[in-house]
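Still learning. Show one?

>
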Amino acid sequence: MAWTTPKTWSVGEVLTAANMNLHLRDNLNFLKPEVARKTADQGVSSTTYVDVTGFSFAVAASEVWIIQIDMDVDINGTSKVKFLWSVPSGATGQQRYLGDSAGSATAAIGSDLITSNGGSATFPLAYSATLVNSTNAGTAQFRMALFTGVNTATLKANSGMQARRV
């Protein structure tokens, strides 16, 4: 869905459902952010990526998105955790986090972003990303896996995501 420049109405002009849908409903839907909250913990126990349930949204061609995720991650054992966005072919951008023991890290949006925390701990992460899509529409899906170590990492309930078109 694309933004449509709102219509300038003339006195006496007939208001139609098509005009209201195009200039009001569709534009309001365009401005609405994608919002999600984890209602239950989601764990990983291998280095194979899994989709973070509910943390995905549709991306149209040539759109730019700003994504923010506030999360609590629980690490059990000697593990580190990694994050990755699965995005439409040709999309670019950066992802970053702030909050574990080493402070922060940055990576391209389609690459591994690895926490430096290892060992048993629960820590908050403030995560953000910029997604610049190419001409291929598709879905942006947040994913996580263990990077190193054994045991598990858990994305805790009440972690939340907000993604906004800009």
Summary: Residues 17-31 form the longest helix (15 residues).
